[in-house]
Amino acid sequence: MKNYVLTPGPVPVPEFVMLEMAKPIIHHRTAEFEEIFFKATQGLKKVFMTQEEVLILASSGTGAMDAAVCNTLSKGDEVIVVNGGKFGERWGKICKAYGVISHELKVEWGQAVKTDDINEMLDKNKNVKAILIQASETSTGVEHPIKEIAEITKNRDDLILIVDGITAVGAFPVEFDNWGIDILIGGSQKAFMLPPGLSFISLSKKAWKFYEDSDLPKFYLDLNQAYKNSLKKTSPWTPAVNLVMGLNAVLEHFDKLGLENLFRRHSIMSEATIKGFESIGLENFAPGCSSTALSVIKSPEGIDAGEIIKGLKNKYGMIVAGGQDQAKGKIFRITHMGYVDKGDMISVIAGVESILNELKYDFTPGLGVSTATRILDSL
């Protein structure tokens, strides 16, 4: 039985990317690899929508989150952490590890943060130096209003906006320069449809000024070292050579496809999946603020989502993600990133229908598939 990885990271990797990564290893301190590395950094600028350098780190996305904190803040600094899911919670844990004081803005899971609440917290905490947030909260499927939040921070020299875009960059528009974001992070195993192991980070000129005042310890994740070396078409430490080679194949694919078409694919698959499940009575977990990177669907009343997830894996080889913490057993999460297409979306909806039928859920079989198919026909 074939396995279908339909989780929101890691995501399926295309054959042309795997073939590129299967090429013989290149030594990283050669002119040949320098050109490969440079090409990757230039391609990343297009996806990040920036003229600033985009740094490539040999780490998971959490490594870049860690770097964002330790390179711009100091012990005892105050920040606002928007916590609307497991990855918002992670910002708080990173800050705590470095002695940075977090004012946590808790947001109900499945809802987006309100800019009024951010302004209110800023009014109460005059010494805040940064707002840390997700563009797309992977654990809930929520897209936060980054453009509107950047309007609050972009004209203030004393305040930076740090955005985890790990399941956003490459999935939908996140305009680093135009919106005035100060730090933006991406990860290889999401919309960049690579295996895990690379993270990407870009800093605004304002964020680099914060670097100058930062007193937190940094060595491997010292972004100034990464920046200086990136200008020389290399990295300070041994890079993940074959992953960077694969990255170039992905970026070339994005360039040929066009970012607008890439974003449109994610949007259509998201709409089809959500409306397909809604037609058989399954609710969207993040109505009105859904990230197009993934769909997060509520399990029907009286049915544990774990039963659906287990049934998909055992019966059809389909692997989808479940909920965490208070959402455990209540939701399942399906990717629209990576090497997936309309056939995958139709298949997973059909698979869920089959499992629900076995679990005696009352619905019209085939309605979810037919609803989704009509929308997916525009791809």
Secondary-structure blueprint of this entry?
Blueprint: E1 4-5, H1 15-21, H2 31-48, E2 54-57, H3 61-70, E3 78-83, H4 86-97, E4 101-106, H5 115-124, E5 128-134, E6 136-137, E7 142-143, H6 146-153, E8 160-164, H7 176-179, E9 183-187, E10 199-203, H8 205-213, H9 223-230, H10 241-257, H11 259-278, E11 294-298, H12 305-316, E12 318-319, E13 321-322, E14 331-335, H13 342-358, H14 367-376
Parallel strand pairs: 1-12, 3-4, 3-5, 5-8, 8-9
Antiparallel strand pairs: 2-10, 6-7, 9-10, 11-14, 13-14
Helix pairs in contact: 1-10, 2-10, 11-13, 11-14, 12-13, 13-14
Q: Please, could you describe this protein's structure?
A:
With 379 residues, the chain is α/β, with parallel strands linked by helices. It has helices spanning 15-21, 31-48, 61-70, 86-97, 115-124, 146-153, 176-179, 205-213, 223-230, 241-257, 259-278, 305-316, 342-358, 367-376, and strands at residues 4-5, 54-57, 78-83, 101-106, 128-134, 136-137, 142-143, 160-164, 183-187, 199-203, 294-298, 318-319, 321-322, 331-335. A hairpin with a 4-residue loop joins β6 and β7 (142-143). It folds into 2 domains: 15-255, Type I PLP-dependent aspartate aminotransferase-like (Major domain) (Aspartate Aminotransferase, domain 2); 258-376, Aspartate Aminotransferase, domain 1 (Alpha-Beta Complex). α1 (15-21) runs antiparallel to α10 (241-257). 43% of the residues lie in helices and 15% in strands. The model has no long low-confidence stretch (mean pLDDT 98).
